[in-house]
Design goal:
This protein has about 350 residues and is α/β, with parallel strands linked by helices. The protein has three domains: about 100 residues, Helicase, Ruva Protein, domain 3; about 160 residues, P-loop containing nucleotide triphosphate hydrolases (Rossmann fold); about 45 residues, Arc Repressor Mutant, subunit A (Orthogonal Bundle), CATH 1.10.10.
Amino acid sequence: MQHRGSAAEVSDALSECEVTSVVALTALKATSRGTIVGRHPSIRSALSTLERVARSTCTVLITGESGTGKELAVAALHDASPRAKKPLVAVNCGAIPENLIESELFGHARGAFTGAHAARPGWLAKAEGGTLFLDEVGELPLSMQVKILRVLQQKEYSPVGDSHVQRSDVRIVAATNRDLLAQVAAGRFREDLYYRLNVVHVHLPPLRERTDDIEGLARFFLRSFCDRLDRSDLVGFSPEAMATLRAYDWPGNIRTLENAVERAVLLSDGPMVLVEDLPPTVSGAGRLSQPPPAVTELPLPDTGIDLRGAIQEYENNMIRQALDRTKGNRNRAAQLLGLNRTTLVEMLKRKGL
């Protein structure tokens, strides 16, 4: 356990922290959805591309793992465009049940289905004149992909249960953490829609590939949460805590780092955030002492196997066990599975668990 230091040591650390903060922390872009922070060339390149294409109406495909800041990148694009004063509407395609996604996107007429007592506009209508952000676009069923293609090609759509065609003036930006070309090859994503979406491609790297940004991001989140939670007594991270943050591989990327810092601000006695204030999964206290089961040793049946189905079943089984062990606590279940809570919630909705 680290010791918290004398007043003089803390003062010296604070002075060093303030100097380091000025050098290490670069808020590249303030957006309507938050601030993009980082110095890595890939982030600067991504922002430069978004700024260059912002004034056009072309579609943009943003790729990257969960938690890499795709929504902030979309906000930067929208804010720099002539559509900035119009709505930016974000839709998580993986969180909407397949039987509801058409009416959610396109709206529906009165009486279109049981319970449709009044006409209702969809997300496309709500984004009129602005930007529609289709997050996790790779989760769209094929039946919906062709309807999105119609919007992109003909700028029109029809609400569910309505034969009237409505014109659409919306810029569509899509994001995914999947390999869409692999999805195309597997027949799960339309090739024509892929090329329509991929006019401009921006990739956001995982945090483990931009470790020089971890310190700046951590200090940014610390300052933000200290202001929000009235923790003026917290002055920074101990060297050991910062080294621990830099050494972790952050499977949930920036979102997980933000959650870790928020937890530390809530639990730390101050004046410095110590290693023991960090989540056990980050500090090492909660890491598994035994390797995961050697699933590679399972024999392949002579008749073959439905590999995707087997993987899905294994995944579903692990999720159920985690929820059973934590008595339904999704935060703790997500920690057991090495997932961010929002990722687990999205998976539960998508799988119907």
